[in-house]
Amino acid sequence: MKQNTLYLVIGALVVAVIALGIYVYREESKPKGVELKIDDKGISIQQN
Question: Which keywords has UniProt assigned to this entry (predicted)?
Answer without folding.
Answer: Membrane, Transmembrane, Transmembrane helix
